[in-house]
Each structure stands twice: as C-alpha cells, then as structure tokens.
C-alpha cells in the first residue's frame, strides 16, 4: 500500500466525510458578529409581511400552509385573502411570494429570528393608508384585493420600504457573510420593486374610478406619505416627477426611484417602523403591525414608549 493511500485513509478517519444522505448541520449564528444580529433580524418583519401578502393574493393561503416552520408559531395574519388578479399579475405575484419564502429561509439560516408578528393585511388596513395618501376618505374604501391595479398599488407600499432598509443597513454590517446576505436580499427586493413600478408605469394614465386619481398620481401621493411618516427627508419618489428631480434632470418619467446620482435611498429601522405603523412614530404601533414589529430593535422602542 503506497504512502499516499495510507495518508488518505488517515485523513478520512480523522475527518470523516458526510454521506449524501446525511444533513450537514452548521451553526450559522457563529458566523455572524453580535453587532450584526439585530440588523439582520429586523428585516424579518417586512419579509413576513411581503410573504403573506403575496402568497395570499395569488393563492388564497400563506405561510401556515406552504412553510409553517418559518412562522415559528406566530399568529396568522388578519384579513388576508385571494385577490382578483389577471393571469399575468397573478403569475408575477406568486413568484414574489415564493421569493419571500426563500428570503425568510435565508435570514433564518444566519440568525435565530423570531415568530411571525401579528400582521393586519385586511382591506381596512390598506384603505387607511390610501386615505392618508389621498388626503381624504375614499369612497368606496380602497380594496387591494378587488382587482389587479389595486393589488399592484398596494404592493407599491411594501417592497420599496424593505429595499431602502437594506440599503441603509449594509454599511453598518461588519461581517462579510452578513453583507453578502443583505446584498442578495437587496438585489431581489429591488427587482420586485422595479417590476411593480414598471407594471404601474404602463398603466400610469389610467384614472381610478370613482376616486378621480390616476395611477401615477396615486404613486406620487403614496411616496409623499412615506416621506412624511418617515421623518427622514426625501427618500421616496412616485412614477412621475418634476424634470429637475428625474434622472440627470432630463426625465420626468421615474420608473426607478433614486437620488441625484440615481442611487437607491437608504432608511433606518426607525424610519421604517414609522412608515409601516402608519403613525409616524417608531414607538406607536398600528397599521400593518397592530401589536408592533418584533426583534430587539423594534421592541426597544415599544418598551421605551
């Protein structure tokens, strides 16, 4: 027996290789610096929200059926239901839903996470946001599940907030694995937002009856509302902007939002909480999170209320 073969046998005895049927178990939390854990856990709030909204909108059911282990025993969402979507929109929304399932898996591989918080995805919850955006009570009340355009407008509310959160988080992360995860999440969230904006941009001149507001103007008002609630300055733009505000000051069309260099805006966790609570305050829950978001960052503000 050659020396090389003997050496190989010794290595196998010292470091046995797992068979194809064995599951390789790794402690991913050990790869994440303590300073990164809270920053990686916080986005789970929005990923839960997106997963449930997209899955229910396309299928009529959500995580409790497709991936119950990811909920960690958290309460089911309030008011979520299947939407009346055309085939193309349903196909796109369903893809988004499965992508969000993947995002939850990816984050929970890196950090422990927390149970799905209570989410209010009822028509009434979205109607309240749209009333604030419109500056008046809409009648009949806005229903995100009524048709494809309404669902896309409601979807306009969600991925972009998560996108800005990832942009704001990335520079604060210390671990390379943390930055890699957030970069991957940001890429797909940005893609989702781009698809939603493109579909709405195509329909931008359609007037939503009986509200008398075009699709493009609705997006502008939603963006204005998020800027107002976030208290972080101009970090949101609708589909049509003043020429000076467009890319290189040469375009009024704004299918992708960005700063003067066409770079994505970033938001802090506090700004995001103010927006998704609909209260403008990180310590006053409501909106899509009637009992507040979870994770140490969000809870620290609730405990300080």
What does it look like?
By secondary structure, the protein is mainly α. 51% of the residues lie in helices and 1% in strands. The chain is built from 12 helices and 2 strands; from the N terminus they run H-H-H-H-H-H-H-H-H-E-E-H-H-H. A two-stranded antiparallel ribbon has the order 1-2. A hairpin with a 4-residue loop joins strand 1 and strand 2. Helix 6 crosses helix 10, helix 7 (148-156) packs antiparallel against helix 9 (176-202) and helix 8 runs antiparallel to helix 9. The longest helix is centred in the middle third of the chain and has 27 residues, at 176-202. The termini are far apart.
Structure described in brief:
The chain is an all-alpha fold and 305 residues long. The protein has twelve helices and two strands; from the N terminus they run αααααααααββααα.
List the helices and strands and how they pair.
Blueprint: H1 3-14, H2 34-41, H3 44-59, H4 63-66, H5 87-110, H6 123-134, H7 148-156, H8 159-169, H9 176-202, E1 207-208, E2 213-214, H10 215-230, H11 269-277, H12 296-303
Antiparallel strand pairs: 1-2
Helix pairs in contact: 3-5, 5-9, 6-10, 7-9, 8-9, 8-11, 10-11
Index terms:
mainly alpha, 305 residues, 12 helices
Instruction: Report the major sheet.
Output: 2 strands, antiparallel
Mean pLDDT: 91
Strand content: under 5%
Individual helix count: 12
Number of strands: 2
């Amino acid at each position: 027996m050659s020396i090389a073969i003997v050496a190989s046998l010794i290595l196998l005895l010292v470091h046995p290789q797992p068979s194809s049927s064995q599951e390789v178990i790794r402690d991913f939390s050990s790869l994440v610096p303590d300073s990164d854990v809270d920053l990686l856990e916080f986005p789970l709030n929005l990923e839960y929200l997106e997963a449930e909204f997209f899955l229910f909108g396309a299928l009529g059911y959500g995580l409790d059926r497709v991936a119950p282990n990811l909920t960690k025993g958290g309460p089911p969402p309030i008011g979520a239901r299947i939407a009346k979507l055309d085939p193309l929109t349903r196909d796109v929304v369903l893809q988004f839903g499965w992508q969000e399932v993947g995002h939850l898996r990816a984050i929970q591989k890196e950090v422990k996470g927390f149970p799905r918080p209570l989410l209010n995805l009822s028509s009434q919850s979205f109607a309240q946001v749209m009333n604030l955006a419109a500056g008046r009570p809409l009648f009949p009340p806005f229903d995100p599940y009524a048709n494809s355009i309404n669902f896309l407008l409601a979807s306009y509310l969600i991925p972009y907030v998560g996108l800005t959160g990832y942009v704001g988080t990335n520079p604060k992360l210390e671990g390379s694995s943390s930055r890699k995860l957030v970069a991957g999440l940001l890429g797909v969230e940005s893609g989702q937002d781009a698809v939603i904006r493109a579909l709405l941009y195509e329909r931008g001149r359609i007037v939503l009856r009986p509200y008398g507001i075009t699709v493009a103007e609705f997006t502008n008002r939603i963006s204005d509302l998020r800027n107002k609630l976030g208290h972080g300055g101009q970090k949101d733009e609708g589909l049509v902007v003043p020429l000076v505000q467009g890319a290189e000051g040469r375009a009024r069309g704004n299918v992708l939002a960005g700063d003067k260099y066409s770079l994505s805006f970033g938001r802090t966790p506090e700004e995001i909480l103010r927006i998704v609570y609909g209260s403008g305050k990180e310590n006053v829950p409501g909106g899509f999170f009637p009992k507040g978001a979870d994770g140490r960052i969000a809870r620290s503000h609730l405990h300080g209320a």
